[in-house]
Specification:
Strand content: 15-25%
Radius of gyration: 19 Å
Helix content: 25-40%
Oligomer: single chain
Structural class: alpha/beta
Number of strands: 14
Order of helices and strands: EEEEHEHEEEHEHHHEHEHEHEHHEH
CATH class: Alpha Beta
Distance between the termini: 13 Å
CATH architecture: Alpha-Beta Barrel
Strand order of the largest sheet: 4-5-6-9-10-11-12-13
């Protein structure tokens, strides 16, 4: 692997300033991004291996850890085999052990709540999939998450199934609070259910959940309101949003900044504490020219922004903070490469390039452990 260095640590000082989101105080501006690791037990419980995985990031200096997407009910929300859930007391209690391990190392932990919708490719509770409309998702199922072939055509959700999904988010949020998490993040990004309702290509409904932007946002609004009611006013609540999707990386909102203004202005009226934007490269213009998606969120939502997208270069990450586009940056590949990324930046240490072998052929923790061990033997 090639290594890079960070000779001037002072230019990164902004990354180590404390910051508060809602009632949650972070020791720095560095977060671990949500990353699907499909390493839970068959019944959706977090494991000791997962506790070690997450606590390593806290030991390494990250102020905030956002979990992988956690499924919310035992109906249609689960997206992947061995994805963890928060749908019952057994799953809640398993997560409590993970949160406790992170707390012992000074981190703060937020549970990301996710309903896969039409992108589900591994659900032991149901054999069919649901979405806003009967539209086959683009692309192929992800093989490194044990998928194969095209996505099936989902069944358009009936009203009672939409209500069931909303209630699942609220119930899972309560379980997260009981497990000791410091907050929850509603996954409204990356092509999963809430994003499917927001996107014109996958939402062809002609009821109150389909049509213009305001109607396509309705499910996000109702989920946020249900979760806030369930957890109370003091529990930190965020929302992740994106243009690109796991099955359509280049997707853009049709009306560009006009849509961004409508979407983020609507989020400003919701009882959330932050917005988490994700793009391939967070600092780039969201629409070819003009502000980044993070900057647009700051402008129109007026809320704290967590920005994600290729920010493993500490100078790039610091620039996003200094320029006022974001308040916190979240790292995926950088965190996977070095669980102690913040400590390395603070000490001016070197960095290795991301090794894709960590996620191949299966993107779980067992493969990562095996790959790192084999790599270490090769290097020595």
């Amino acid at each position: 692997m090639n290594a890079t260095t960070t000779p001037d640590t002072h230019q990164h000082d902004c990354l180590f300033q404390p910051f508060s989101i809602g009632r949650m105080t972070l020791k720095n501006r560095l977060a671990v991004a949500p990353m699907t690791r499909i390493s839970a037990s068959d019944d959706g419980c977090a494991t000791e291996q997962m506790a070690s995985y997450y606590s390593a990031f806290a030991k390494g200096g990250f102020g905030l850890l956002i979990t992988e997407g956690i499924y919310t009910d035992k109906a249609h929300s689960q997206g992947y085999w061995n994805q963890p859930g928060l749908s019952d007391h057994q799953q809640r209690d398993a997560w409590a052990k993970v949160v406790e391990a992170v707390n012992q190392d000074g981190g703060r932990m937020v549970a990301q709540l996710m309903h896969a919708g039409a992108l589900s490719q591994g659900n032991p509770y149901r054999s069919d999939t649901l979405g806003p409309s009967a539209v086959r998702p683009k692309g192929q199922q992800m093989t490194f998450y044990r998928g194969k072939g095209e996505y099936p055509i989902p069944r358009a959700m009936a009203d009672h199934e939409i209500t069931e999904a909303i209630n699942g988010f609220a119930t899972a949020a309560v379980c997260a609070k009981q497990a000791g998490f410091h907050g929850v993040e509603i996954h409204g990004a990356n092509g999963y259910l809430l994003d499917q309702f927001l996107s014109e290509g996958t939402n062809l409904r002609n009821d109150r959940y389909g049509g213009d932007v305001a109607r396509r946002l309705r499910l996000i609004v109702e989920v946020v309101q249900a979760v806030r009611t369930a957890v109370g006013p003091e529990f930190t609540l965020g929302l992740r949003i994106s243009q690109g999707k796991v099955n359509d990386f280049t997707h853009k909102w049709r009306n560009a900044e006009t849509d961004a203004a409508l979407i983020f202005s609507a989020l400003a009226d919701l009882p959330i504490d932050y917005v988490h934007t994700t793009e391939f490269e967070a600092w780039q213009s969201a629409f070819g020219n003009g502000p980044s998606l993070a900057a647009l969120a700051r402008q129109y939502a007026g809320l704290p922004v967590i920005a994600n997208g290729s920010l493993h270069d500490p100078t790039r990450a610091a620039d996003l903070i200094v320029s006022g586009q974001a308040d916190v940056v979240s790292l995926g590949r950088g965190a996977l490469t070095h669980a102690d990324w913040p400590t390395r930046v603070h000490n001016g240490a070197s960095f290795d390039e991301f090794d894709p072998g960590i996620l191949s052929p299966i993107a779980n923790l067992a493969n990562e452990h095996r790959h790192r061990k084999e790599r270490a033997c090769t290097l020595h």
